[in-house]
Amino acid sequence: MASMLLNSLRNCPVCPAWAVQSAARSLSTTVQLQAQVQTKSKKTLARPNVKNIVLVEGVRTPFLLSGTTYSDLMPHDLARAALQGLLHRTAIPKDVVDYIIYGTVIQEVKTSNVAREAALGAGFSDKIPSHTVTMACISSNQAMTSAVGLIAAGQCDAVVAGGVEFMSDVPIRHSRKMRKTMLSLNKAKTLGQRLSLLGSIRLAHLSPELPAVAEFSTSETMGHSADRLAAAFGVSRVEQDEFALRSHSLAKKAQDAGLLQDVISFKVPGRDIVSQDNGIRPSSMEQMAKLKPAFIKPHGTVTAANSSFLTDGASAVLIMSEEKALAMGYKPKAYLRDFVYVSQDPKDQLLLGPTYGTPKVLERAGLTMSDIDVFEFHEAFAGQIMANLKAMDSDWFAQTYMGRKSKVGTPPMDKFNLWGGSLSLGHPFGATGCRLVTTVAHRLQKEGGQYGLVAACAAGGQGHAMVIEAYPK
Amino acid sequence: SLSLSLSLSLSLFFYSAYMSERERLYCFCVCVCVCVCVQVNTLSVQMQAELTEVMGEVWSNGAVKSAVFISTKPGCFIAGADINMIQACKSSEEVTSLSREGQKMFEKIEKSPIPIVAAINGSCLGGGLEFAIACQYRVATKSRKTILGTPEVMLGLLPGAGGTQRLPKMVGLPGAFDMMLTGRNIRADKAKKMGLVHQLVDPLGPGLKPAEERTIEYLEEVAVGVAKGIANKKVSLTKEKGFMQKLQDTVMGLGPVRKQIYKTVSDKVQKQTKGLYPAPVKIIESIQAGVEQGGEAGYVAEATNFGKLAMTSESRALIGLYQGQVICKKNHYGTPEKEVKKLAILGAGLMGAGIAQVSVDKGLTTILKDTAVDGISRGEQQVYKGLNDKVKKKALTSFARDTILSNLSAQLDYSSFKSADMVIEAVFEDINIKHKVLKEVEAVIPPHCIFASNTSALPIKDIAAASKRPEKVIGMHYFSPVDKMQLLEIITTDKTSKDTTASAVSVGLKQGKIIIVVGDGPGFYTTRCLAPMLAEAVRVLQEGVGPKRLDALTTSFGFPVGAATLADEVGIDVAAHVAEDLGKAFGSRFGGGNVDVLKTMVEKGFKGRKSGKGCYIYGKGKKDKSVNPDAEEILKKYKLAAHPAISTDSDIQYRLVSRFVNEAVLCLQENILRNPVEGDIGAVFGLGFPPCLGGPFRFVDSFGAERLVGIMKRFEDIYGNQFTPCQLLLDHAKNPSKKFHK
């Protein structure tokens, strides 16, 4: 638990935004004009007898460091804000949607089906069923692909998917012993029984049980695993800090240039209107080098500055069959094409989801790495991203662990996470997936590419990848 | 099935597992920090010389500011000194001088002008640990294979290269005593807590190279970082002591307190070893000399005591057991044609569930079949409890426990036996029941499936008589409690195929057992040796020696469990059963005590520990057991007059032991045993024969066959053929140059 809260401390030692202009050396961004030239030669991924499913719109609340402006809300409030934002953007009638699915990781016990509470609160018709899914950091990806499944199966035409995470408040429980005593107390019939139960309470009963970002199967915290993963692939501290700096610099650039169109403004009750992410803080290599490792001490390489931080936020997307969208007069943003889920060893390969997912989804879509114009990978830790890039570039790894003939290759950095990523924008576990997909759609529109690839890792040693195709102009 | 437990555990340790491999040391310079990579796993004379040479080069190079010592052999830092080097010595003086040389070498390391960091991955035992603690700093991987320890005591030796002098300073007196007197393995995280290592490194998963390779590289990177840090004063060698540590140091600084500790430890050692093991005493002496009289006196005491211990028969016996153990941990029958992946066990009793317990955690898919729901429920609970106890001791995570348990399927019918590779039956010891299940099983299993019987006395060929495929029938005699007792006795008949034997040995090794393979016959080897000794024990009891005195006599001879307690542990009913069966098979030679004593006890419900009453009364949670007065009544009823000529304490001991030993030698004579090594291992690890004697065969070698025959003749005059020495023993008595062990 201590390590979980550690991430939120990252804002203290990293310095303010005076170093904005500095971009990371080898990873720096370049203009992406050549992508436009290529698009004409590429064909669409539409297949006979497979329904075209489109992303009509995607929005998100600003992602805020947990414990800041959102701190007094509840998770469904954030989800509600995202849903209202979506309603507002799309102007879709409140009863046209067939189904609502939300992803979340750490559940508020009062609103365990947060999808339903948020939908009702956002003013959707109470006739629209909603459910909540959980799959760690790819929960909202699962929400979206569930929606795709419902539409593909002909059960629905319009589905809202989204995700929410609220780390400013987490369920902290009484100890198991105390819970047992309290439950027995409920059943106690006589005063004597009650007194003897109360008398049995010891100091140890009072120590609370905290949730942790740790694997249940291995008891290892994710940061610890990320540090080991980085070491396994020989990722240096400098490489990680450079990547983190790149993420922050690119995010800052995108924010300043107004590229993050998916962000909606949110009037927090009793507080000001929030209209942008507050975790973007480009620093300098020198400042970042000063940080001590957060998980493996004293020789680890993962620090607060090169990890994603605890974040509050929610996202929502409107997914429709192409016919329905066109019939309603919408201009879709992108096609949602092939997707895969993968899973592997939760101990030593916890965060390698993108490595396993990428070649698999490309194969399904009949594409290669060079066909992809836009990459959006979830950045859990800079070390995790670098480790994945190295794994994807290794024939030995592909042959030994993935049963493949050769490596899939690395994404070119000039197409990779150009508007920042989870390291800088923030990572509300349940909500990140929708942000990735929406960003791909927006980048395809902006940069003129045809195919985008989303990939993400998740706790439990799982992963996800999806191919997205630009909607013709 | 027999049941007993060894109080002196001789668990496997890799003292010099790779003795034969002697590769050269090499070193490469990185200017500021040098890495000395060891490819040798044992400290030998040759390695000592090379190490001295390499370190000389390192020290004479002014550019080198620090050094890292690391082994490039995966899973092993330095596993200890080469036993052959010690065994080759002819006198204690020779061993003492070896020890002095080791001490000097490590002293140079300790006083090194540049800091030396030991980077430890894998076993760091004995001399390896002594080397590591002479270094200025220790970094170790958290791998399960990383173990630190001073196992010398288990070989009847002491840490003879400065270990008795450095350890007390490093981990404190109590910690040092604990390490050196128990010889137990210490895992890395515990070692860090004790102050034995400074820093831990997590084992890595696979990256761009195999996990193990990358982990060693990573360890080296971290160690080099530390070494550079020490050289440029960024890493401090002195650790800030906590309050408790300071308090402990102050208390230990007081002479009378230390005196009390020496006394307490000595008393405890005396009580546990009955004075039969000299090594612990010498360890205490050496530590005491160093702490009380200063370094030089300590080193001299250590080297002298090391020399003395190396020449003791106890040390030779223990080393023999260690080497025998290594032999019995190998499959001498080749690789089986088909690996056993699915194991079915019949009978979910104590034995059946015990076998399941040691199988599921090795990845064997295991079926546990019984005829009653109560039976499988109890059996499953036993397996669960065994694993959960490990969870409580933090040796296993609750998640790993659950995953392991998913390998177990408890059931009442024969479903899915059709895919079993091996069936082990642990049903009631009755030939008719064994035949019944054998036929039932053969109707459902595939042709390649092996049928193994876990019987403690019924001849396997009698069981196999009911089989359609006797070449696939074999005996696998486990000892109870299966998860604690290391021995597995495998019994082959004339018809058992070699591949069947190879399979059984392979499964046993997978289960972590030490294996002896013996020929078929009533009682095989172990039960057959035990039976005459128990018959003698009953006679001794009938002659009026109480259970407590009988226990004292046997334990003071070196048996970890007294004879009366042993009978209770085995089960009086089992003992009666075995005595009767083997009595029929071997006739009057197996007589002695009256079998009716045991039978009457069984009738009255005194079946031993499992029924709460036997020779003793066992209360729940009570540690002290009291003699069962009703059992004493029975003994009085069957009272025999003791012969004063052969009833001294020593006579009673030899009456018990000589029958055991004679039977063991007879087993070798009759080819039930293939060699004396397996005979010694079986007796010590299966029956608790005194480890300090090294087993019945080594005992004959060191005690003298002639002397033993002489004693037996005295007993023979009174009791007859029960004490007639067998021909092989007589041969050895006639020719003193004949030895079972070279």
From TrEMBL, chain A:
Pfam families: Thiolase_C (PF02803), Thiolase_N (PF00108). Residues 53-323 form the Thiolase N-terminal domain. GO terms for biological process: fatty acid beta-oxidation. One of its GO terms (cellular component) is mitochondrial outer membrane. It catalyses: dodecanoyl-CoA + acetyl-CoA = 3-oxotetradecanoyl-CoA + CoA; tetradecanoyl-CoA + acetyl-CoA = 3-oxohexadecanoyl-CoA + CoA; an acyl-CoA + acetyl-CoA = a 3-oxoacyl-CoA + CoA; butanoyl-CoA + acetyl-CoA = 3-oxohexanoyl-CoA + CoA. Heterotetramer of 2 alpha/HADHA and 2 beta/HADHB subunits; forms the mitochondrial trifunctional enzyme. Also purified as higher order heterooligomers including a 4 alpha/HADHA and 4 beta/HADHB heterooligomer which physiological significance remains unclear. The mitochondrial trifunctional enzyme interacts with MTLN. Interacts with RSAD2/viperin. Belongs to the thiolase-like superfamily. Thiolase family. This is Trifunctional enzyme subunit beta, mitochondrial.
Automatic annotation (TrEMBL), chain B:
Residues 342-520 form the 3-hydroxyacyl-CoA dehydrogenase NAD binding domain. It is found in: Mitochondrion inner membrane. Its EC number is 1.1.1.211, 4.2.1.17. CDD domains: crotonase-like. The active site is at residue 489. Keywords: Acetylation, Fatty acid metabolism, Lipid metabolism, Lyase, Membrane, Methylation, Mitochondrion, Mitochondrion inner membrane, Multifunctional enzyme, NAD, Oxidoreductase, Phosphoprotein, Signal, Transferase, Transit peptide. It catalyses: a (3S)-3-hydroxyacyl-CoA = a (2E)-enoyl-CoA + H2O; a long-chain (3S)-3-hydroxy fatty acyl-CoA + NAD(+) = a long-chain 3-oxo-fatty acyl-CoA + NADH + H(+); 1'-[1,2-di-(9Z,12Z-octadecadienoyl)-sn-glycero-3-phospho]-3'-[1-(9Z,12Z-octadecadienoyl)-sn-glycero-3-phospho]-glycerol + (9Z)-octadecenoyl-CoA = 1'-[1,2-di-(9Z,12Z-octadecadienoyl)-sn-glycero-3-phospho]-3'-[1-(9Z,12Z-octadecadienoyl)-2-(9Z-octadecenoyl)-sn-glycero-3-phospho]-glycerol + CoA; (3S)-hydroxyhexadecanoyl-CoA = (2E)-hexadecenoyl-CoA + H2O. GO terms for cellular component: mitochondrial fatty acid beta-oxidation multienzyme complex; mitochondrial inner membrane. Residues 523-618 form the 3-hydroxyacyl-CoA dehydrogenase C-terminal domain. Pathway: Lipid metabolism; fatty acid beta-oxidation. NCBIfam families: fa_ox_alpha_mit (TIGR02441). This is Trifunctional enzyme subunit alpha, mitochondrial. It comes from Myripristis murdjan.
